[in-house]
Amino acid sequence: MRPEQTAAGDGERRSLRRDASAPALLAGLVCVAVSFSGPLVVVLAAAAAGRLDPAHTASWIWAVAIGSGVSGFALSWWTRTPVVTAWSTPGAALLVTSLGGYPYREAVGAFLVSAAVVTLFGVTGWFGRLIAAVPVGIVNAMLAGILFSFGAGIFGAVHSAPVLVVGSFAAFLLAKRLAPRYAVPVALLVGGVLAALTVGLPLHLGTGGPTVPVLTVPAFSWSAVVGLALPLTIVVLASQNAPGLGVMRAFGYRADDRLLIGTTGLVSLLVAPFGSPGVNLAAITAAICSGPEAHPDPRRRYVAGMSSGAGYVLVGSFGGVLVSLFTGLPKELIAVIAGVALLASLQGSLAAAVAEERGRDAAVVTFLASASGMSLFGIGSAFWGLLFGLGTHLLLDLGKRAPH
């Protein structure tokens, strides 16, 4: 059983020095590596679609990384829960197809409008009340669906790098038997060595000093509000904040939705003039920091959230120097490390999703839709998994008595 965590860590201001651990610190670093080796590519594509010059592109990366890092670090420390914040990958994908149709100043104005609306939904508690109404089984099924592709990705990478994948996975299993707390670090170490010997490990740093953010004075237009702000707000709330709160609930944390979404909304307002389309709760990377691989004790996993936040700030501050380090890592190494880091979380969410016979139909529908990778109206599969699962629950389970 996972003890429910309050926003203040069971009312106890815990000691960071006592709670820090190597697995939690590494979980945060894995979270950063996963973010910058994959989703960053979508941000770069959106920047290219908007015809941004290198200075504004670097400022965008600085803004989303600093905003995510500062908010995640501060919220993890304040709440003593693993809060991971990030930029919206579906939101960046939306901008790939739409950013080029607006002057950049109007796009920044749309980012500000979107952040203001998200903040309103957060501080009023409207969004949290909607999410709280979702049955726990459906929430866990959604989480399992989100994580499924990462577990399957371990074996999907075998054909391109069999020695790396099989060797690092075998090292993970052996360490899981002998020293469970260090299973992921061992897999990362062995995977790095095998990558260097087989597919290559190009650990090269970029050039340049600290990133210099570029301030853009926003402009506002109805076309940008309707064409950018409105869809971006829907995507952030549905595809990011809803799964983000769901992940925390699935791991037993009673997240203060007003504090978390309200804070990320306010941070988004601050960094929007520097190019950020928004900062929000993370889902996939949050599971890396919230699961048992980060620490067996749920009350000590907040250190992973702080580690992740510090990593974001470091990479954001020296974007030109460090981003190339993460983007150059072999995709097979990232796949296997992310997969093994999330295995325990996938196992727990699957078990919780089908724990009760009543509601299994809804849980299975949620899982299948969330794992499908479908996208409709620019909104990702996690939201549709929740929606289809709730529809199934309302049709088949609501009002029925539990079996005796």
**Helix percent band:** 55-70%
Fraction in beta strands: under 5%
Q: Output the radius of gyration.
A: 20 Å
Query: How would you sum up the major sheet?
Result: 2 strands, antiparallel
- Count of discrete alpha- or pi-helical segments spanning 4 or more residues: 18
Strand order of the largest sheet: 1-2
Order of helices and strands: HHHHEHHHHHHHHEHHHHHH
Layout of helices and strands:
Layout: H1 16-19, H2 22-37, H3 39-49, H4 54-79, E1 85-86, H5 89-98, H6 104-123, H7 126-132, H8 136-156, H9 162-178, H10 183-197, H11 222-250, H12 257-271, E2 280-281, H13 284-290, H14 302-317, H15 319-327, H16 331-353, H17 360-371, H18 381-396
Antiparallel strand pairs: 1-2
Task: Give a written overview of the molecule.
- It holds the Pfam family BenE.
- GO terms for molecular function: benzoate transmembrane transporter activity.
- By secondary structure, this protein is mostly helical.
- It has one domain.
- It is built from 18 helices and 2 strands.
- The protein has a two-stranded antiparallel sheet with strand order 1-2.
- Helix 6 crosses helix 11, helix 9 packs antiparallel against helix 10 and helix 14 packs across helix 15.
- The radius of gyration is 20 Å and the shape is globular.
- The two termini are 23 Å apart.
- 56% of the residues are buried.
- About 2% of the residues have low confidence.
